[in-house]
Amino acid sequence: MRRILLALFFVLLVLQSWSSTFIMNVRYEKAYMEVLHLRFDKAIEIINSEKKKDPENFSHVYLISYIDFLKVIISEQQKDYNRLLSEKSSRVNQLESVNNKSPWRLYSLAQLNLQSAISSVKFGDYFKAAVDINKAYNQFTENNRLYPDFKPNKAGLGLLHVLIGSIPDSFKWVTGLLGMKGDVDEGLKELQGVLIIEPDNQYPYLFVESLFITTFVTFNLSGSDANTNALIKILEDDQVTRQIKDNPLLIYAIASFYSNRGMNDKALDLLVQRPVNNEYFPFYYLDYLTGIALLNKLDTRARFYLLKYVTSFKGRNFIKSAYQRIAWSYLIDGNKEQYKNYIYRVSLFGSDEMDSDKEAAKEAKAGRIIHPELLKVRILFDGGYYSKAEEIMQKLNTESLKNTEKVEFIYRQARIHHSKGNLPNAKHDYLETYKLGKDFKSYYAANSILKLGNIYEEEGKYEQALWCYHSCLKLDFDEYRNSIHQKAKAGINRLSN
Known about the structure:
This protein is mainly alpha-helical. It folds into three domains: 2-275, Tetratricopeptide repeat domain (Serine Threonine Protein Phosphatase 5, Tetratricopeptide repeat), CATH 1.25.40; 284-370; 376-497, Alpha Horseshoe (Serine Threonine Protein Phosphatase 5, Tetratricopeptide repeat), CATH 1.25.40.10. The protein is built from 27 helices and no strands. It has helices spanning 2-18, 26-36, 40-53, 59-75, 78-96, 103-122, 126-146, 151-165, 172-178, 184-194, 204-221, 225-235, 238-245, 248-260, 264-272, 285-295, 302-312, 319-331, 336-346, 355-366, 372-382, 386-395, 403-419, 423-437, 444-458, 462-474, 481-496. α2 runs parallel beside α4 and α23 (403-419) packs antiparallel against α24. The longest helix is centred in the first third of the chain and has 21 residues, at 126-146. The radius of gyration is 25 Å and the shape is globular. The chain starts with a helix and ends with a helix.
């Protein structure tokens, strides 16, 4: 019996000595940064070189999976999604063999599950996404318990807490059933903690990842001016500015943020100076963003970039929106025939899963030409050119407007007042838009009451803010429904906690 126990002990020692490692050495760190810059060929060259030197260092498994994940998200190709899923089981088995004393073991497994979940959402497989998110949640949580000082884990948990905290009410039962808890503000604070620039720069790739995520969370889910201003301060840091210029992923996130904040010229500067050589994986969505930014200046060059997007991109999303914007470009030029030509293409191409595509499909289906001057106001406002938008509004004859157009007029007026800091007038017009527009299917009433809630929240009037957010969720409308409801729900979560 003693001999058997000794033999077993010896086998365990041997197996432990054969267990794989996960060492993010300097060369793998370099490969990681190349992955985040979308220079996949360079990354793979480094990965293959390191794999030959030490095949049992499974950092390469994680990085190759990361590349496959980014291809899925950027290209939206079914073949890329299928490859990610087919390779996952083998990759999980390899990473599970990593020595369990390494904090990278559970972290990398959690990341693979999170990447699979996000990819599954992209392709509409919500059940698989829920299963994988639950796995990632448990792995990140356990890893944080075992290694509380492991900084990469904070970013992973931060993102998960944001995602779980912003799940729509109709899916909330899933998180309750699986015991997952999350909050947008909690997750954002965790991500902001990772964004502190430290002299030792132990995880250089982590800053890029966290900046990318934090940027999207801030303008999509956080109604706080404090969070927005904190992010702007980070983006204006010289060290950060240098990192952005040659990174398409960061350009994508930050240009989207600037556009959302009415800082169109900043967004356009980033987009037109972005790297476009063959070293980078094709990212056609940046052409779409460039077209939008040019359109916001009423610049007809927008058509070139939007046409490039619809002819080059092989995915499904934002195709309808791009054709709609091309149509708009012709309409504000007074060319109604070309407007009709391109708005008709909206009904032929692309999907209507995204909010902007739904709006485009609705306009195409309506079969009527929208008000050109109100359209100019909207476009200029989106670019942050508030004074120019106001000039057009002052010349409009409101008596000639239809009821829905009058609601839009007051809504645009409210948005301009809000953006220029005139809060009393903004609050009045937001409430007026809500009262007049709550029975229409347009998004004006819903976004108005949401924005009014944001103002009340900033003023510390939490009861009024909660009333606004709950009122928003009660409205039945078509355009931008998911994003507006998600922001209202995030507001309720902030105030409830």
